[in-house]
Amino acid sequence: MAKQKIVLAYSGGLDTSVLVRILGEEYGYDVIACHVDVGEARDKDLVIARAKKAGAVAVEVAAAQDEFARDFCFPALQANAMYEGIYPLSAALSRPLISKHLVAAARKHGATAVAHGSTGKGNDQVRFDLAVKGLAPDLKIVAPQRERNITRDAAIEYAAKHDIEIPATKKSPFSVDENLWGRSIEGGVLEDPNQEPPEEAFAWTKSWKDAPNEPAYLEIGFEAGKPVSVNGQAMGPAALIHEVGRVAGENGVGRIDLMENRVVGIKSRELYECPAAVVLIAAHKDLERFTTLGMSHRVKAMLDTKFAELIYEGFWFSPYRDALQAFNDAHDRTVTGTVRVRLFKGHCQVVGRKSENGIYNHALSTYGVDDAFDHRAAEGFIKLVGLQLQEYSRLHSEK
């Protein structure tokens, strides 16, 4: 009797290499390893070879950097998505994309289940599970790490016992996850909330002390709320994020230290490097304020918080996200133009913007000789807008 097939989200690291063998020998599946390139520094041929040596019957590798940037990072950018006002959701955004490819691989190979290596106390288990439920509710979800809580030492021992090829096993003081939109760092001394992050935790951003002594400037071009150029040069989505991140990181921009409220109720200390995301969100926010009505911008600011929360909590593939995305697409139709950003010693500041859609009239705004504003109209406006307050106070002033 043929074994049932399962598709595993495969990173190529220690944990998922061990899971290939566990799912095959202990769960009884034929394992298809699925690796999705969202910007990690992985050698494709090495990933394939390692998965097959671990026991995978097939390996799917998806080159998804542009897809990730275009279909996930940029919609989040349109929403100015920052969880708890500070985290640009880099890890959270990659999970629905990976899940999408897991489901596609399951359909291709006739698999009845998908698997991931998330633990039972983290956010990613929620994101993977909900994304799969949203896309393919018929597929079973298997999470051996959640069921068994396999320690690093136990995983290394298991790999040695079963001759599973794994990366160098020298213990890093930190747990790191990275993609185009950002780098997440946790563990080690960072588990002490009062411990200043050591410089060795960072890889994408320079310390302000080592950053250049002269500011750098980026002019970012947008069309309908999505970035399309840097300093006048048109770029594809992934290339643009890489370039903005490179310049921002060189100037020390993008470090985030957050006491984070996880989905499962745990409060954890998380460190992030998101140089491109920090700069692009700052630029988009500014251009949005310049080119949209104040009333819709105020409503969108509230919805942006909800958009960030739904990403964090794993509801990307939901009608809720579709509805908010429709609002953002409509709202951002006029968000076209360029924004000039200054980067200096860890600071990012918008210093200029221009757009044919800018709702700005110099003759109305100036206090100079060109002033065309009807100052006398303000008195009638104030009288009407304050009429309710005036009448209330007249009735109740004695009280």
From TrEMBL:
<feature type="domain" description="Arginosuccinate synthase-like N-terminal">
    <location>
        <begin position="5"/>
        <end position="165"/>
    </location>
</feature>
<dbReference type="GO" id="GO:0000053">
    <property type="term" value="P:argininosuccinate metabolic process"/>
</dbReference>
<feature type="binding site">
    <location>
        <position position="184"/>
    </location>
    <ligand>
        <name>L-citrulline</name>
    </ligand>
</feature>
<feature type="binding site">
    <location>
        <position position="124"/>
    </location>
    <ligand>
        <name>L-aspartate</name>
    </ligand>
</feature>
<dbReference type="GO" id="GO:0006526">
    <property type="term" value="P:L-arginine biosynthetic process"/>
</dbReference>
<dbReference type="Pfam" id="PF20979">
    <property type="entry name" value="Arginosuc_syn_C"/>
</dbReference>
<keyword id="KW-0028">Amino-acid biosynthesis</keyword>
<protein>
    <recommendedName>
        <fullName>Argininosuccinate synthase</fullName>
        <ecNumber>6.3.4.5</ecNumber>
    </recommendedName>
</protein>
<keyword id="KW-0547">Nucleotide-binding</keyword>
<feature type="binding site">
    <location>
        <position position="123"/>
    </location>
    <ligand>
        <name>L-aspartate</name>
    </ligand>
</feature>
<feature type="domain" description="Arginosuccinate synthase C-terminal">
    <location>
        <begin position="174"/>
        <end position="392"/>
    </location>
</feature>
<dbReference type="InterPro" id="IPR023434">
    <property type="entry name" value="Arginosuc_synth_type_1_subfam"/>
</dbReference>
<dbReference type="GO" id="GO:0000050">
    <property type="term" value="P:urea cycle"/>
</dbReference>
<comment type="pathway">
    <text>Amino-acid biosynthesis; L-arginine biosynthesis; L-arginine from L-ornithine and carbamoyl phosphate: step 2/3.</text>
</comment>
<dbReference type="InterPro" id="IPR048268">
    <property type="entry name" value="Arginosuc_syn_C"/>
</dbReference>
<feature type="binding site">
    <location>
        <position position="260"/>
    </location>
    <ligand>
        <name>L-citrulline</name>
    </ligand>
</feature>
<dbReference type="Pfam" id="PF00764">
    <property type="entry name" value="Arginosuc_synth"/>
</dbReference>
<dbReference type="GO" id="GO:0004055">
    <property type="term" value="F:argininosuccinate synthase activity"/>
</dbReference>
<dbReference type="InterPro" id="IPR024074">
    <property type="entry name" value="AS_cat/multimer_dom_body"/>
</dbReference>
<dbReference type="InterPro" id="IPR018223">
    <property type="entry name" value="Arginosuc_synth_CS"/>
</dbReference>
<feature type="binding site">
    <location>
        <position position="175"/>
    </location>
    <ligand>
        <name>L-citrulline</name>
    </ligand>
</feature>
<feature type="binding site">
    <location>
        <position position="119"/>
    </location>
    <ligand>
        <name>L-aspartate</name>
    </ligand>
</feature>
<keyword id="KW-0436">Ligase</keyword>
<dbReference type="GO" id="GO:0005524">
    <property type="term" value="F:ATP binding"/>
</dbReference>
<dbReference type="InterPro" id="IPR014729">
    <property type="entry name" value="Rossmann-like_a/b/a_fold"/>
</dbReference>
<dbReference type="InterPro" id="IPR048267">
    <property type="entry name" value="Arginosuc_syn_N"/>
</dbReference>
<feature type="binding site">
    <location>
        <position position="127"/>
    </location>
    <ligand>
        <name>L-citrulline</name>
    </ligand>
</feature>
<dbReference type="GO" id="GO:0005737">
    <property type="term" value="C:cytoplasm"/>
</dbReference>
<keyword id="KW-0963">Cytoplasm</keyword>
<dbReference type="InterPro" id="IPR001518">
    <property type="entry name" value="Arginosuc_synth"/>
</dbReference>
<feature type="binding site">
    <location>
        <begin position="9"/>
        <end position="17"/>
    </location>
    <ligand>
        <name>ATP</name>
    </ligand>
</feature>
<keyword id="KW-0055">Arginine biosynthesis</keyword>
<comment type="similarity">
    <text>Belongs to the argininosuccinate synthase family. Type 1 subfamily.</text>
</comment>
<feature type="binding site">
    <location>
        <position position="117"/>
    </location>
    <ligand>
        <name>ATP</name>
    </ligand>
</feature>
<comment type="subunit">
    <text>Homotetramer.</text>
</comment>
<keyword id="KW-0067">ATP-binding</keyword>
<feature type="binding site">
    <location>
        <position position="87"/>
    </location>
    <ligand>
        <name>L-citrulline</name>
    </ligand>
</feature>
<feature type="binding site">
    <location>
        <position position="123"/>
    </location>
    <ligand>
        <name>L-citrulline</name>
    </ligand>
</feature>
<feature type="binding site">
    <location>
        <position position="272"/>
    </location>
    <ligand>
        <name>L-citrulline</name>
    </ligand>
</feature>
